[in-house]
Design brief:
Layout (H helix, E strand, L loop, with lengths): L2 E4 L3 E6 L11 E6 L1 H11 L4 E8 L2 H13 L1 E2 L3 E4 L5 E8 L2 E7 L15 H5 L3 E5 H5 L2 H16 L3 E5 L9 H11 L5 E5 H7 L5 H9 L5 E5 L5 E5 L4 E4 L12 H14 L4 H16 L11 H10 L11
Parallel strand pairs: 1-4, 1-9, 2-7, 4-5, 4-6, 9-10, 10-11, 11-12
Antiparallel strand pairs: 2-3, 7-8, 12-13, 13-14
Helix pairs in contact: 1-9, 7-8, 9-10, 10-11
The chain binds 2-keto-3-deoxygluconate.
The site of 2-keto-3-deoxygluconate (KDG) has 14 residues, from helix 1 and helix 9.
Length: 319
């Protein structure tokens, strides 16, 4: 299997109207959860993917199982936990971007634990991916994320980690400690400019990315939204890749789509700059529709988009 991810899926309610959550009335149901978004995005791009999580024995848990099966994501390691519910989040959109409101405390996924991991399943993957959200949702999920990274490393499987820092889930000092724990275990690290500012708001984001690269990963990828991305390699090498022209509707999940695009292309043997070029296109397309999963492109969509815009690469808008 190309990519196995570990984390929390969240049923998504994305406001159709713009405005704050207390003002809007119409929502579109979808699917979110950063690591679930990565495996669905990877599967749409043609990779084989599997997911490790817990869902509740409820409507949203069943909807997720159906989604993953329809998308070709392996669900053999998804536990249906009758003791807890599948988490939910709402997206509100305004001129300042999007904001999330979570109903996830005590969710089924927060009951993930190291005992849910099967070393044989992890060792057959080419990449194991997890995130700062997975670490932050509960102590047992944090232990499971660390154990999954360690099992992967012991088997020679690449470890991918996205900081995805969410100060709503834990104080920033705690989030920084989670990052310090994960980064030395990872081969490839993704972060956004917001993540970089949460780590150190006195240094420019590229310097924060370079600092992370000095802690052990082979590659650190800084996602810069409309400014594209920067890839820093521990072996030496630094690539700045611009974004694509796109009208941003909702950037939710665009960063997860970016991760999937980068990983899928990297696994196909592409050099970092080419992987980043495809990833920025996948992220741009993901930002051009509402919700995290509905706008995720297939490989054919991405190739068509890249061919159409090959000569007009500008500062576009991905997250
Ligand atoms: O990256 C998008 C995710 O943030 C969204 O789908 C919800 O997983 C989520 C979270 O915890 O914020």
């Amino acid at each position: 299997m190309d990519i196995v991810a570990l984390g929390e899926p969240l049923a998504e309610f994305a406001a159709v109207e713009r405005g704050s959550l207390d003002e809007v009335f119409t929502f579109r149901r979808g699917w979110g959860g950063d690591t679930s978004n990565v495996v669905v995005a990877a599967a749409r791009l043609g990779a084989s993917a599997g997911y490790i999580t817990r869902v509740g024995d409820d409507a949203f848990g069943r909807a997720f199982l159906r989604l993953w099966e329809q998308e070709g994501v392996d669900t053999s390691r998804v536990v249906v936990d009758p003791e807890a519910v599948t988490g939910v989040y709402f997206i509100a959109r305004s001129d300042r971007g999007h904001s999330f409101t979570y109903y996830r405390a005590g969710s089924a996924a927060s009951r993930l634990r190291p005992g849910d991991l099967d070393p044989a399943y992890l060792s057959q993957a080419r990449v194991v991916h997890t995130s700062g959200i997975t670490q932050a949702i509960s102590p047992t999920a944090r232990e499971a994320a660390a154990a999954a990274m360690d099992m992967a490393r012991r088997s020679g499987v690449l470890v991918s980690y996205d900081l995805n820092l969410r100060p709503r889930l834990a104080p920033v000092t705690r989030l920084r400690a989670l990052v310090a724990d994960a980064v030395p275990r990872a081969d490839i690290v993704f972060l956004s400019e917001e993540d970089a500012a949460h780590l150190d708001d006195r240094r420019p984001a590229p310097a924060v990315a370079a600092d992370l690269c000095a802690c052990g990963p082979r590659l650190v990828v800084l996602k810069r939204g409309a400014a594209g991305c920067l890839v820093v390699a521990a072996a030496g090498g630094r690539w700045e890749v611009p974004s694509w022209p796109v009208e941003v509707v909702d950037a939710t999940g665009a960063g997860d789509a970016f991760d999937a695009g980068f990983l899928v292309e990297w696994l196909r043997g592409a050099p970092p700059e080419a992987a980043a070029r495809l990833a920025t296109a996948v992220g741009a397309l993901a930002a051009s529709g509402l919700g995290a999963v509905a706008p995720l492109p297939t490989r054919a969509d991405v190739e068509k988009f890249m061919a159409q815009h090959a000569n007009s690469r500008t500062k576009g808008g991905t997250e």
